[in-house]
Write a structure and sequence with these properties.
four-stranded antiparallel sheet; 35% helix
Length: 92
Amino acid sequence: MSIVRITTVTLISQEVADAAASSYAANAVNDFPSAEQLIGIKSDGNKLIAVSVYESQEAMDKADAERDKRMANPDIVSMESVVGTVTLNHIN
């Protein structure tokens, strides 16, 4: 069963959030090669949501160093993450 991490980040402005979303879209596939699936969501102006699905806890742990670099961004006002087990991952 896969494991998922959902992270919501609030940045200092919509412009900064737009730049961060563009950077994530351009680089996430290379930055997080152990992920099975990556979803980036722009929400409510300065809020971003990232959904990362991994084969196992070990695969997710491999992504932590790169994730820590991204989360060290001084433009982040707040960040919340939840981790859980995927019970449905349907793609049409």
